[in-house]
Design a protein that fits this description.
The chain has one domain (about 1-125). The chain is about 65% helix and about 0% strand. It has helices at about 1-5, 15-30, 30-40, 45-55, 60-80, 80-100, 125, 130-135. Helix 2 runs antiparallel to helix 3 (about 30-40) and helix 5 (about 60-80) packs antiparallel against helix 6 (about 80-100). The longest helix is centred in the middle third of the chain and has 21 residues, at about 60-80.
Length: about 140
Amino acid sequence: MALAFIGAFLPLLPTTPFLLVAAACFAKSSPRLYNMLLANKVFGPMIYHWQQSRCIPKRAKMLALSSMVVAVLWSGYILPTVWLKVLVVALVVWPFVFLWRLPISNSHQQMPLTNHRPVGKSPEKSSPEKVTKSSGGK
């Protein structure tokens, strides 16, 4: 999560992948930190929408795509050789297409508070299968 925070201010270090990895790890290991991450005003809704429907807000998508275009254009302007310019374009094509194809989330849809995992409860303990198996044997 610290890398995601640093990535918010450094242009070469991405923020989103580190936040998604942190959310995935916290969902398994620490319900308290997972709930705290989802309760964050800035990153919580993005993480929630990504986990629920694999979509991102329109503003984030447009900002990411335009940043990629500006970075490629700037790199093309300052790089001295053609093969380096082609390499930069080739490295950016797949992430650009991936982002372009992502659906846009409904910005008016609010994140339900009931979807947060309660502190101290693991998914295994709250599943109905385990409860019926343990109570069925008595």
